[in-house]
């Protein structure tokens, strides 16, 4: 064994396998980690969902807890019993309910090591988020998937928490960097339909673009603004709303331009998948997008850009999508380089290194 003569026992705790990119990332990461002979991996979850398909087989110590509500505190009891019986050394919490469970587990089992993960970069000033900040003081290490996510915690705790940056995994698709003239959708936007995705502005852009003669726009996703999007799109002749789409690549590969006007992100998973599928991207110029596309990418829009300005850039991107392979590769080079660093085995090795480091530090 490369790290130690003794395996480290690790359990991931995820509330659900619903439609978010964070759930997909958790499944992809776990599926890489179970391949490592230095680790004894376990996975606990409460609700099933579409992203469970990304787990590499049910046989890999995956346990579904028999609880109906995520707020059921008996979940903590279940985790404690499993931690004891499996002789778990490291618990990894993924998403906010799991942070609460693992904080309580840490209180009850002082010798357990808690790795907390951060999948976002900004939150409103609500009591839930203040409580989570309090929980985080008890984590042995916090792993964020974006530079802004790291800064969020460093700002709040001023180096009192061990915060590290670890990339997301890019799902194993072949990068399609060639121009395609037979893509039937001019523009596509897939992802969580939440206020931080700037949905109202996105819909206003789609409406104006169609009013100007555009057609074949697809919006997909689920979230708190699903009903709003469905209602607004229903009256448009050149656009369609697809709801949650379990196979986004099947849509991206038929689309010329992907648009994201997000106000903030963790790691922009949908944007990355769109690039892998060969889409040109129109994106808000936020740090999380710049980290992928580079500072000088030509199809950025500012958060406060006027609708007409965004529509103009969208039209330019659609025209550019028909450029030759050489031009496309030049523009997307920074993105391709960034995506190549999201190799599953490499990202898993970074998590493994953290597991061993915190275990040795607390031995």
Protein model, in words:
The protein has a seven-stranded parallel sheet, sandwiched between helices. The chain is elongated and about 65 Å long. It contains 13 helices and 13 strands. The mean pLDDT is 91. α2 crosses α3 (96-108) and α6 (199-211) packs across α11. It has helices spanning 21-33, 74-86, 96-108, 127-136, 147-157, 199-211, 226-234, 248-252, 269-276, 287-293, 307-320, 325-340, 344-361, and strands at residues 8-16, 39-47, 62-64, 90-93, 113-118, 141-144, 163-165, 185-190, 217-220, 239-241, 255-260, 280-284, 300-301. It is an alpha/beta fold. β11, α9 and β12 form a beta-alpha-beta unit.
At a glance:
The protein is an alpha/beta fold and 363 residues long.
List keywords for this structure.
363 residues, single chain, 7-stranded parallel sheet, 6-stranded parallel sheet, alpha/beta
Low-confidence stretches: none
Rg from Cα:
21 Å
Terminal CA distance = 19 Å
Name the beta content range: 15-25%
Overall helicity:
40-55%
Strand order of the largest sheet: 3-2-1-4-5-6-7
The number of distinct helices, counting runs of at least 4 residues, comes to: 13
How confident is the prediction overall: mean pLDDT?
A: 91
Overall geometric form? elongated
What's the number of extended β-strand segments? 13
User: Structural class from helices and strands?
Assistant: alpha/beta
How would you sum up the major sheet? 7 strands, parallel
Q: What is the chain-wise order of helices and strands?
A: EHEEHEHEHEHEEHEHEHEHEHEHHH
């Amino acid at each position: 064994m490369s790290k130690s003569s003794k395996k480290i026992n690790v359990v991931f705790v995820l509330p659900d396998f619903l439609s978010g990119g964070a759930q997909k990332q958790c499944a992809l990461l776990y599926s890489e980690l179970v391949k490592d002979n230095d680790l004894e991996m376990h996975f606990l979850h409460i609700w099933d969902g579409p992203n469970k398909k990304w787990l590499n087989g049910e046989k890999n110590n995956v346990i579904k807890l028999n609880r109906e509500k995520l707020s059921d505190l008996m979940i903590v009891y279940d985790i404690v019993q499993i931690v004891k019986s499996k002789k778990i050394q490291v618990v990894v919490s993924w998403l906010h309910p799991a942070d609460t469970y693992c904080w309580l587990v840490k209180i009850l089992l002082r010798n357990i090591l808690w790795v907390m993960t951060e999948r976002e970069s900004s939150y409103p000033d609500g009591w839930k988020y203040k409580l989570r900040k309090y929980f985080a003081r008890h984590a042995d290490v916090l792993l964020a998937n974006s530079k802004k996510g790291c800064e969020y915690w460093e700002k709040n705790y001023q180096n009192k928490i061990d915060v590290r940056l670890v990339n997301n995994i890019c799902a194993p698709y072949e990068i399609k960097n060639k121009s395609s003239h037979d893509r039937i959708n001019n523009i596509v936007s897939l992802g969580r339909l939440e206020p931080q995705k700037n949905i109202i502005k996105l819909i206003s852009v789609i409406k104006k673009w169609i009013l100007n003669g555009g057609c074949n726009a697809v919006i997909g996703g689920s979230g708190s603004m699903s009903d709003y999007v469905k209602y607004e799109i229903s009256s448009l002749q050149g656009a369609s709303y697809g709801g949650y789409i379990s196979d986004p690549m099947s849509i991206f590969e038929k689309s010329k331009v992907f648009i994201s006007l997000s106000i903030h992100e963790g790691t922009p998973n949908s944007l990355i998948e769109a690039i892998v599928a060969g889409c040109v991207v129109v994106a808000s110029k936020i740090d999380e997008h710049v980290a992928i596309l580079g500072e000088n990418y030509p199809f950025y829009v500012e958060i406060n850009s006027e609708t007409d300005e965004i529509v103009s850039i969208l039209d330019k991107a659609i025209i550019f999508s028909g450029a030759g392979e050489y031009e496309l590769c030049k523009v997307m080079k920074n993105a391709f380089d960034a995506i190549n660093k999201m190799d599953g085995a490499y990202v898993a090795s970074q998590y493994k290194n953290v597991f061993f480091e915190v275990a040795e530090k607390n031995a």
